[in-house]
Design goal:
single chain; 444 residues; alpha/beta; six-stranded parallel sheet; four-stranded antiparallel sheet; 19 helices; 13 strands
Length: 444
Amino acid sequence: MAGKVVLVGGGSYGWGPAVTGRVLQHPQLGGWQLVLHDLDPEPLGLVWRLGERWRERSGSSVRLEQTTDLAAALDGADAVIVTIATGGLRAMAIDLEVPERHGVYQTVGDTVGPGGLSRALRNVPVFVGLARAMEKHCPGAWMLNASNPLCALTRAVNRATSIRALGLCHGVRGVARQLAGFFGVTLDQCAWVNTGIDHCAWFTDFRIDGRQAVDLLLEQGLESWLRLPPEAARADGRFGSLFTLRCGLALGLQLGALPAIGDRHLVEFFPGYLDSPDRIAAHGLKRTTMADRQAGRQQARLRLEEQLAAADDTIPVSGSDDVAGWVAALAGAAVVEDNVNAPNDGQVPQLPSGAIVETRGVLDAAGCHPLVSPMPRALEAVVRPHSLREEMVVEAALTGNRELALAALSSDPLLGSPEAARAVLAELLAGTREWLGEPLGTIG
C-alpha cells in the first residue's frame, strides 16, 4: 500500500516537524509521499530540510517534497492534514485586544467568545476554498483538521462541500495521560468515555483498574486541595501535577463528570472565571498573551534550527496525537481507536445533528465510526448552547450574514455586556478585514 499525504501549513515550526516525524516513522506509511505545503517558502524550506535529514538518516522510504503550489500538492492525495491560522499572530492580536478594550478577558481566544468568533469568520472561507480545491484535485481524500476553532472549521467543510473532514485534537488523550500519571499507571490501565465538543470535553466515566477515578481522587483529598490558594495548590506534592485541571475538577464535582481538557480552554465556556483580572488571578489561571505566542514561535524555530545543527540521528516524537496512524487507518492499514471530532450522527444525541462533536471513535478503511457517548443533563445545559451558537457562527461565515454573527456574539456568555456586542463585532471585522475574503469582506 502506498499513497500520498499532504500537510497544509507545512511551514509551521511546531506542527511541521511533528507531523513529518510521525509520518516518517510510521511502519505502515513506508513508500508513501509526504508533501509539505505552505504559502511562505522560508519556514517551509527549513521544515523540509529537517525532514530530509531525518529521512536520510533513518532510512525511511517515505518520499518527502515541498511546494507552495496548492494544486500540485493536492493532486491525487489520500489525506490532507491542515494546520493553518489565517492572519497568523497579527490577526490573533486583534482577537485578544479588541475584546479586552470592552472588558472581555480571554485565556486563549481561539474557540468561543469574541476571539473564537473572529477566528472562525476569517478561517471558514479559507477552509471551504481548500476543500473546493480538494474536490477538484483529490475528491476522495480525507481532510484531517488540527486548526482552531476546530469544530467550526470542520463543520463548515462538511456542511458546504463533499469533502469528508474530521477534527484532530490531542487534548483529551493528553488529559487521560495526565490522570494516568497522577495515579502512577499506564493508559492501558485506564478506561473512559468522553463526550462534548472540542475544548469543552468531559469524561462521563473514567476508571483506573476498574475503580472510578473520581472516587480515588476524593479518597486522596481532592476537596481539601481545591480549597487551597493557587500557589499552595500548584506546589502541593500530591495534587500539583493536576494544577492545570484544577478549575475543571472543581466544576466536575458539581456537574458529575471529570474534565477532559485543560483549564486554559475550558474556562472560556464558563465566563465567571474570567470576568476580571483579579478573578483570573484568584483561580491561578494564566492568559496566553501575544508575548507568549511570539516567544513560543521563536522558541519553536530555535528548536528546529538546533535539530538541524545536531549530530543526533534520532527523530523526536512528542505530543499525544496519532495523525500518522489516522492516515494509515483510513487508507486500510491497522485500525485506530482515538479521540475524534466528527459530524454528529447520533453519537451525542443531546447535540444538533451534523454538528461536530468530540467522542472516542474507530477509524478504518470504511471511515470514522464514533462511539455513542450520551451527555448527562448537567453537561447538556452547558454544552448545547455553545453547539447551537457554533452553528450560527458557521452560517454567518458561509453567508456573510452580519446580523447572524451579531446574534451569535450577543448570546455568548463570555461577553459580559451584550450591549457591547455590536461595537466589538464592528471592531473585529474592521481589524481583520484584510483576511476575511468573500463573502465576509463585504460585511459593512
